[in-house]
């Protein structure tokens, strides 16, 4: 009986160490991507030397911008793609969707337990800003909905109306692969 207890405790300890290590790796990737995204979006405001631009282009690889969520006091890197490796670095841009300013649907996704940790606190009327090399785009949250994980009707063209869609898994505190998706719809802020 003592041997079984020892094996179970050892397995639990190994799982804890592995999980902690993976969380730390993910956090390091996000911090690195955030620094790169900030440097890239500042490129708009201040001209850089040719050598500095070349270094930024090499390090950025798939980092395309920055997502600012004032209510959550968050600045998150946006990466091109939504694979597990992409989402480990930050918020993923769904490749076949538009980019801000494109007058079509923009889809950004993130993990509920990392970049979108407090996502459920966002409400109608809150703002989010997407910063790219091409400029800064502000959106106002209009509504939210919850759909099944396999619902593919969310991603579609909205031309000529620009629509920002933010997605994450739901329920927020679910352990394992969540059965639903939490969707936030936001539209360009009008002055």
Automatic annotation (TrEMBL):
<dbReference type="InterPro" id="IPR023365">
    <property type="entry name" value="Sortase_dom-sf"/>
</dbReference>
<protein>
    <recommendedName>
        <fullName>Class D sortase</fullName>
    </recommendedName>
</protein>
<dbReference type="InterPro" id="IPR005754">
    <property type="entry name" value="Sortase"/>
</dbReference>
<feature type="active site" description="Acyl-thioester intermediate">
    <location>
        <position position="169"/>
    </location>
</feature>
<feature type="active site" description="Proton donor/acceptor">
    <location>
        <position position="111"/>
    </location>
</feature>
<dbReference type="Pfam" id="PF04203">
    <property type="entry name" value="Sortase"/>
</dbReference>
<dbReference type="InterPro" id="IPR053525">
    <property type="entry name" value="Sortase_D"/>
</dbReference>
<dbReference type="GO" id="GO:0016787">
    <property type="term" value="F:hydrolase activity"/>
</dbReference>
<keyword id="KW-0378">Hydrolase</keyword>
<dbReference type="InterPro" id="IPR041999">
    <property type="entry name" value="Sortase_D_1"/>
</dbReference>
């Amino acid at each position: 009986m003592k041997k079984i207890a020892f094996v179970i405790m050892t397995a639990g300890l190994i799982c804890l160490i592995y999980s902690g290590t993976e969380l730390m790796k993910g956090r390091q990737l996000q911090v690195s991507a955030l620094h790169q995204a900030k440097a890239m979006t500042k490129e708009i405001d201040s001209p850089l030397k040719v050598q500095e631009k070349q270094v930024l282009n090499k390090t950025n690889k798939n980092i395309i911008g920055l997502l600012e969520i004032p209510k959550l006091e968050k600045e998150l890197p946006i990466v091109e793609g939504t694979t597990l490796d992409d989402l480990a670095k930050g918020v993923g841009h769904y490749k076949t969707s538009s980019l801000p300013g494109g007058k079509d649907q923009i889809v950004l996704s993130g993990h509920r337990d990392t970049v979108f940790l407090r996502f459920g606190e966002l409400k109608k009327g809150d703002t989010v800003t997407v910063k790219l090399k091409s400029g800064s785009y502000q959106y106002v949250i209009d509504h939210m909905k919850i759909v099944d994980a396999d619902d593919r009707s969310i991603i579609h063209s909205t031309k000529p109306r620009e629509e920002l869609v933010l997605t994450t898994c739901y329920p927020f505190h679910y352990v394992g692969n969540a059965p639903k998706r939490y969707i936030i719809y936001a539209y360009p802020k009008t002055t």
